[in-house]
Predict the structure.
Amino acid sequence: VVEYMKHILESDPKLSPHKCDQINNCLLLLRNILHIPESHAHFLMPRLQSGGGHQVSMQNTILWNLFIQSIDKLLLYLMTCPQRSLWGVTMVQLIALIYKDQHVSTLQKLLNLWFEASLSESSDDNESNTTPPKQASGDSSPMLTSDPTSDSSDNGSGGKKESC
């Protein structure tokens, strides 16, 4: 589903109403899948065994796979699209389900670490604020084709605003 959304966004810079509906429907599908309670999920598929011998929930497996496919970068990209109002509510619901089992204090600590790391990277990378940022190649969306191991602050856009 994530790859399909990336394909839609990369196929045409201007999204038709039909393609916007397709994006929203994909987000709705992901939201509905994550909305299935874990107690019902074991009827569909048994819990998976990890290498350490403990069981991994189906929801965690789905989330892990979504993040492997860079759902975080895709969601950030969709938030910048001019058509974002068409799928904004669905995205908020999806993000709420992704982080539903996280404690606020844990998320705050992770965000603080991320902010500190991104601030130190930006001060190391750009000692002088007078030099213009590097321009991206422009052929494809950097949000959708970036390295899956890089953090989401490193989108390669170089200050260039991409349109959907």
Summary: Residues 1-40+56-108 form one domain. The mean pLDDT is 75. Helices lie at 2-11, 17-35, 38-44, 58-68, 71-80, 88-98, 104-125, 142-145.
